Amino acid sequence: MKKYKGIQFPNTVEIIHHMRNDQKKYKRAIHQENMNDIIKFALLISGVSSNRKAPGIVKPMGFETLYRCNKEDAKKLKEHLKVTYNIVDADTFYQCCKELYSSNHEYLQFLQIWKGNVQLDTSNMPVNIKRLFKNCCAYAKLFYPIVKESGFYAWDANEIIGLCRKAYACGILNENEVQSCCLPIAKTISKLFHNWYEFSISCICGALYFNYRNSGSEKNVYEVYQLYSSIFDSFFCQNGIYHINGWYFEEEKKFLLSKNEIKQLLDDWDGADGCIATNRILIDGCKVGYMYREETNQEWDSGWRFLAGDETNEYLNNPQNSGIYKLNTICNYDYDIMPFLNDEEGCVYARKEDDLFHKI
Fold first, then answer.
1. Nearest 10 degrees: Cα torsion 37, 38, 39, 42
2. For the chain, what are the domain ranges?
3. From the CA atom positions of the chain, what is the Rg in Å?
4. Which of 56, 62, 277, 293 could be bridged to 306 by S-S, CB 3.0 to 4.6 A?
5. Residue 225: Cβ within 10 Å count
6. What's the pLDDT tens digit per position in 223-246?
7. What pTM, to 2 d.p., does this model score?
């Protein structure tokens, strides 16, 4: 039995033993073909959460397209999200996700403690908080042999995208907000795991940790494990969503500039430095012809969007034609954008015939 500073979790240790013995069950069901639709991939990530019943969701939301409620059901779902999660708009949605689905963030903090990289002084913590912290740290460590550095990210991703889909279904979020939330998560998932089996194990382990953190006990851990393992069994059966769909691997883009050619140009930038730019700039080598700054709630996102200016709606609607980058990277492709980066949210600039940016 595993121990950590005198703390024991016999039920969870037994479950982990079963999970290791059941590895072949899911591995045999892995679909080897790649998926090329990142939107569908993001929806599939929310498999567990999207199948969870909620007022106003009268049928399964499916995984081919985003689901929309009718007017009457939207009212019920909005009320449910307000009462259960305090979600009434985009701001409260992001705040809820940040506060509620932090299992992997906690795991990564614990990981640094286990590796000896962080010496945390808990002497000033209240006794109950210190006890909870130590117990959660010990409990999370049980899963390290299975999930390693990937941690519980699959669980958080599943829950956030599922909640995002519900917020969209009742009109709290629009499609652009959904994509801004879900696509970065989907791309991280595609790189962090290699197949639905690895994703599922991380998700189950995350669910067990989430249950322990919220209850402070492993008393009902068997019920939680049986629930989620049965759900994944259905996903991996012959016609299950994870059996018939392959894994998404992002096609490697051939950028105009190599990593070694990117210079540090924004030394004094303060705040989020992520942005979205199209392939017309980073691959085709076009200058930025149109740029604007959106209001954003994402921690990584500066709000800046960069286009060559000749992209069609069809081109822009394909997520493969854009990517998330550092502002510094885009500055290396076009120095001309640098004087405008501190402008306020809502600003729009276009390059005119004189080859200069004009505010519009």
1. 130
2. 3-248, 259-359
3. 23
4. 277
5. 22
6. 999 999 999 989 988 889 998 898
7. 0.76
